[in-house]
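hi! just following up on the protien thing from before. the input was this:
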Amino acid sequence: MAVLTAQAESSNGFEITEVAPAGDYVATCLNVADEFGVTRRKYQSEETEVIDVTRFLFGFKAQDGRLYKIQTFEMKISSSPKSALIKFLTSWLGQPPAMGWDYCELIGKGAVIGCEQVVSQLGKTYNKITKISPPKTSLADYTSQVIPVEQFSAPAAPATPPPSAPAPFDPAPVTNFDDNVPF
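and the predicted 3d structure came back as:
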C-alpha cells in the first residue's frame, strides 16, 4: 500500500537581515541555493506541480560604505531559452550559457545589478533585483570593484534547509567481521 506524503514547499531563500538602498551596484555572487522536488502552483492555474528551483545571493557595498545582501526570486531550473533562469544567466554573462554548464561556478563572480525596494501586500519592505549585466562590457569595466566573497560575513545559508534534500551518506566502519559471509 502506497502512503501519500506532502511535497515540500520552497523556502523563503537566504536569511537577509536588512533592506539595502535602491540603486545600481557592482555585486558579487555569494551563494546559490538549489531546492529539488518543490511543490508550487502552476502559472495562472490552481493546479500544482513538483519542480526544482534555484536562487542567487549577491553582496555589494552601497554608497554609505556598508555591505548588503540581496537575493533573486526563485527560478525554475530549466534550460529553455524562454525560462527566467536562462534569461537571467544570459543577461549576467552577456551571452547564453553553454548547455550542461554548472551555474554554481558563478559564486565569487561579479555582476552589475539594479536594486530596488518593494513593499509586499503584507507591508514588508524587501529588495528586488531589477536588472543584471556582466561587470565588463565594451563600454565599462567594473571588475576591479568586485568585492571578494571573503569580505562578506560567511555566506548566508538558506533560511530553512531544503526539506527534500537527502541526508548525506555516512558509511559506518565495519567492525564485526563474520568469516562465514563471503562478501
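The beta strands are 23-41, 48-61, 67-71, 75-76, 110-119, 125-133.
The two ends are 33 Å apart (CA to CA).
cheers
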